[in-house]
Give the backbone structure.
Amino acid sequence: MSLIKSINLLITFLLELCLLVAYGYFGFNIGNTKTINIIFAIVIPTIVAVIWGFYLAPKSYRDISNTIKQIGKGILFLIAFIGLFLLKQEKIDIVFLIIYIINMILLILWKQI
């Protein structure tokens, strides 16, 4: 069972990386020019990563309750899901959402958060 729980934590980490990729993809597709697209593709995921690192990471030094951290993570994932949906990436979005939901259920059931 501990192997399965470790795999679930790995999936959590991979979902967080996918989150940054989704923000980068969204950023790359919202600008008017190639230069703006590239800037947005770099800046938007960087901002999300900084927010995540300072406030939402498990070993963050900020004194924030776990409940608030989980709500913040959920909001960031929700924004990413909406962004992918608006960019007509419904299939990827649905798969991403389903994996996220299953992962969160398992994290809660196994008390990994």
In short: The helical segments are 2-28, 34-56, 66-86, 90-109. The mean pLDDT is 96. Residues 2-28 form the longest helix (27 residues).
